[in-house]
Structures are given as structure tokens and as C-alpha cells.
Design brief:
Layout (H helix, E strand, L loop, with lengths): L19 H12 L4 E4 L6 H15 L3 E7 L6 H16 L3 H15 L9 H14 L9 H9 L2 E7 L10 H12 L5 E6 L3 H9 L10 E4 L5 H14 L6 H10 L4 H14 L6 H24 L3 H11 L8 H6 L5 H13 L3 E4 L2 E4 L2 H9 L5
Parallel strand pairs: 1-4, 1-5, 2-3, 3-4
Antiparallel strand pairs: 6-7
Bound molecules: adenosine-5'-triphosphate and magnesium ion (MG).
Amino acid sequence: MNIPFAYGKIVEDTDFTDRTDETAHLMGNFLSLTNTAIISPRRWGKSSLVAKAIKATQVEQKDILFVRMNVFKCDNPQEFYSLFAKKILEDISSSSEALLANAKEFIARLFPKLTIGDPLSQYELSLGVDLRNDPIGEDILDLPQQIATKKRKKVVVCIDEFQQIGEFRDTLKFQKTLRTHWQDHSDVAYILYGSKKHMMLHIFGEYNSPFYRFGDMMFLPKIANEEWREFVVERFKETGKSITPDLAGYLAEQVENHPYYVQQLAQYTWLRTTDICSETIINQALQAMLDSLNLQFVNLMDTLTEKQRSFLCAVSEGVKNLSATATLQRYQLGTSGHIRILKDALTKRDLIDVTGKEIEIQDPLFKRWILQEYNKM
Ligand SMILES: Nc1ncnc2c1ncn2[C@@H]1O[C@H](COP(=O)(O)OP(=O)(O)OP(=O)(O)O)[C@@H](O)[C@H]1O
Ligand SMILES: [Mg+2]
């Protein structure tokens, strides 16, 4: 029997729930070629949402070419350009013959010195070998528009883990280069998303950043408890087990409706359930999850300073006024001036989210773990 819950990968079809509004919104952006940055904390479902919206669009719209790439492994502009070229060619080509023809047509024109041989393996090899002496330049960034013009289609380029470009040595210069090229592309939309929220906000939200006002900023919300109830109940039912809507709601609540963790907890719970789920089973499953994360959280805490750890404890315990004298004393946070420094440092690490006066621990299980384990140390 297939396990009816999935986590740690892009989820599709029956594993994917809700996101009706967001899917429609994103599909609208594809059609209108609106550049989009998708922002959310880790594992809320950005990659899955993009995959879903692409699939749904492809059913109806044959005149949009989609390109998907993940730039997580790129360390410099060269690697970015190279992957960009490769992925575009792969994704617009329906066969290896078509790929070769497209490579000859588009890449050879941009980079005449590049030898493009037969068969496909040779093409990749020659692209790789030649790159060392004759690197791909920024002109490759115009490839999507050239393809769109030539093929008379729209092109949507989706780039996952986009924040990685923030790690490049001359990142601002590179960002300016990207923006300069991309803003002139009238038949192409760029959908940019990534797992590091802080870095993504830095790239798209700061006034002086080249990507400021690049397009639509989509802030992905969590999936509502109501949706999770239905989803979990249904998936239990389909596999011959049962859970009440209330317990399914309770399950999702334990992990604050966090998509990845709801799926994980549901799976742990499902595996422990013979026929009918109970609250005890959910609690045991949750504890098993916390146990499996223990070492990771201990190690994470080890990388923080004493004050940062205390700050996280205070936030986990729901303390609101962190600068109050009593709080500063109780948690030994130093002076109120330290609070801003602590906030900045922990935001940069994507451990907390600050919205106005509200501070939240990004990872609901980390918060639970702090409350359960760390305070005792
Ligand atoms: N719409 C959804 N329905 C059901 N589960 C979902 C949905 N979206 C996300 N999930 C759950 O969350 C997990 C993470 O999803 P995904 O990888 O799409 O998120 P992400 O925001 O791209 O993550 P990261 O920040 O690590 O890049 C999935 O494996 C799945 O368990
Ligand atoms: Mg992702």
C-alpha cells in the first residue's frame, strides 16, 4: 500500500492540497507575463505551487514555453549562465534532435566560436570544454526573448533558489546585469523564488536593490487548518484507515499548519495507526518527530551565542515586550540596544520572522523543541 503523505519533495496531484487562489494568481501572472517573486518561509510550498501552476497552465495554453531551473549549485555568474543556457534549451526542446537544432540555432548565433557537435553528448561536452576558453557572456540572458521572438511564443522562466545569486562575489553588479537584460524582454516572464526568505526579501524588497519593484511580490500564506482537516481525513479514508476531522485539525495545529510538517506528522501518525487514529497516536508521532530532529536542533543551538539562545527562549515562551527591563533581566539579554542586534542576527539566519512588533520562530518544531528541551538544559 502506498503511504498517502509526502514531504521533502515537490508535491503534485493528490499530494497537493488547496492553494486554489495562489495557483490562479500565479497562472494569471504567467498569462499576463508579469514578473513575480514568491516569498515565504522555508517549506511552505513555493516549489510545489510553481510546479502545479505550470502543469495547470500547460493543459490549456500551448503557446507558452516553460523553463524551470534550480540555481542552488551555482557559485558565480559563469555557472549561472551555463545552467541558464542548458536548461532553456532542454526545456524548449521536445527531443534530443530538437535540442541539437535549437542549440545550433540559438547558441551558435550568440557564441559563434562555440563548436556544437553531434550527437547530444558531444554537444554538452563541447559546450563544457569551450566554456573554459570562451566563457558564455551575459548575452545569454537574452536567450529567452530571442526564442520567444523566433518561435512566436511566450516564455516563462522559473528560477528556484534564486537567493543563491546573493552569495556571488559581485552580487550587486550581477543583479544589475540580470535586471538590465530582463526588463527589456516583452515576451518573457521571470518567476523567481527561493528557500531563504531573508535573502529573498533583501533582493526584492530593498529600495536600493536592482530587483526592487521587479514585479509582483507574492507572499505565500500557510495552508488553512480547515484545508488540512479535509486533506488528512480523505487520505486516511482512501487507504482504509480513519481519523476524525477534529483529530486531523488537531494534528495540523500541533505543527502550526506548516505544510511540510503537517505532511510529515500525518505520515508518522498514519504509520502508527492500525485502523482508527487517536490523539495518543498523534502525540506519540509528534514526539518521534521531535526526537529525530533533536540532534539537528542541538547543533543549531551550538552555533548561536548565549544571548541569541536566550532570545529564542523568550520568543518561544511568547514574551511580547522583549525590551522591558524585567525581560532583559530574566533572560539576561543585556541592554535594550542588544535587542535590535539579536533580532537582526536571527532574522538573517532565517530563525525568526519579524512583522512589525510581532516576532515568530520560523520553524514551529524548533519552537516546540526549545520549549520542551532547551529550557531544561
Ligand atoms: N499545496 C500543498 N499541499 C500539500 N502539501 C504541501 C503543499 N505545499 C507544500 N506541501 C508540503 O511541504 C513540503 C515542502 O514543499 P515545497 O518543497 O514545495 O516547499 P518550498 O517552499 O519550495 O520549500 P523550500 O523553502 O525548502 O524551498 C512538500 O514536500 C509537502 O510535504
Ligand atoms: Mg523550494
